[in-house]
Design brief:
alpha/beta; 6 helices; 216 residues; 5 strands; Rossmann fold
Length: 216
Amino acid sequence: MDRRRIVCFGDSLTWGYHPVTGLRIPEEERWTGTLQRLLGSEYQVIEEGQNSRTIATDDPSEGEKNGRRHIIPCVESHKPLDILIIWLGTNDMKTRYGYAADSIAGEMEQFLEKVQAYNHFHLNDGMKVVLIAPPLIGYADGVSPMEEAFDFTRTREISAALPERYRQVAETYGCRFLDVTGTIHVSRADGVHLEPPETQKMGETVYRFLKEEGLL
């Protein structure tokens, strides 16, 4: 019997960027690896994380990071899919973009519209979509190497406002919504990324959510 397939589409929090070393957290310690371990052999967790990926913004200095441009080719390459988990929005808070929470939620609205249109017309609505809000960012001890890209005073306010806006967008497009802002905490080393114990807790959190929502 074919395994059920789950694609996790995200940014460096899914890729596994270590906030202290800047290297990649080992596979088994990333949240996707933890989720795979908890789900067992009947499931295949497909990790699609990219550093600096945005929801829909082009950034010539970063290269090909536009998530909206890549999402449908990603779904097509991995289908048939049972669940698509989307965890994006952190990079959209970068200072150079100048986005407020409403603007980021507006980008996500267009992103989900594209995903659900494909889901409806090409997959007969067979793919369940889960949207996750970014964690609260901008909380660091001392000087963070990330603060050059993120105005931490501003991003703390934006990240605090995003969950409710994401919830509304998810409801509009028939997606399940997971808010991890009270559960998952960024590293005090850089104020943006997750250390290994927290990435593992993220995998456990997603696993419980999928069970509670009846998606497994």
